[in-house]
Amino acid sequence: MAKHDNLLTKIQGLIRKLRTLNHSATLRTSLRPVVRQPKCWDSTYKMVKRFFAIKDFVDTSDNELAELMPTRHEENKLRSLQDDFREFKSASKKLQSDENVTLFDVRDIFDLAVFEDACVQVLLGKEATLTEAQHEVLKALNRTGAITAHDNDDESEDRDGFADRALRTRKKQRVAVRTYDGVRFIPPTSNAVERLFSKERH
């Protein structure tokens, strides 16, 4: 959430303006702005959710308010963040429920998120950024032996010039991307996959 702090601070400023007597009177809805509380992610979620509920009722002819309204690009980021909050809230409620949640259930909940994120990174050609945990959950889709060329040819690499080494490195990267080729055939299991693609686009 830290990377969105500037945007959330901007929305917080807008919300505070809307809560003042003068601006509150011009808000053409019975819904009231919600201010987030420090170190409370749930209040941040409520603030963002309420923003989208009232944004069309904000009087943007008021310069003070217009300056604090997010751009379309910033709105896309907020929607992505709101989706993250919704998923997190769902998992948090399940973990705190009285439904006899076991350690196996906890692992299933978090493994699914790791697996879906890892699949998206591979499909986007960002396999080099995968964490050790993501490599582990994709192990079943690994094409064994896909990376073989020149891996142990240290003496050859020492003799080669810069251009040859650069071309060899690029070839290894292309082969590596095909290592988890099976992810292309996995159907989306939930809207979380689309949400992750959305975050990469914005």
SSE diagram, text form:
Layout lengths: L4 H15 L1 H6 L14 H14 L8 H6 L3 H25 L6 H21 L8 H6 L16 H6 L2 H16 L13 H11 L1
Helix pairs in contact: 1-3, 3-5, 5-10, 6-10
What brief labels describe this structure?
202 residues; mainly alpha; 10 helices; 62% helix
Structure description:
With 202 residues, the chain is mostly helical. The protein has two domains: 2-96, no CATH class; 103-201, no CATH class. It has ten helices and no strands. It has helices spanning 5-19, 21-26, 41-54, 63-68, 72-96, 103-123, 132-137, 154-159, 162-177, 191-201. Residues 145-152 have low confidence and may be disordered.
Mean pLDDT: 73
**Beta strand %:** under 5%
Estimate the helix proportion, in percent: 55-70%
> What's the end-to-end separation, in Å?
15 Å
Alpha-beta content class: mainly alpha
How many beta-strand segments?
0
**Structural domains: how many:** 2
Q: Major β-sheet, in short?
A: none
Q: Enumerate how many helices there are, as a single number.
A: 10
Shape: flat
Write down the secondary-structure element order. HHHHHHHHHH
**Unreliable segments (pLDDT under 50, ≥5 consecutive)?**
145-152
Radius of gyration: 24 Å
How would you concisely characterize the structure shown here?
The chain contains 10 helices and no strands.
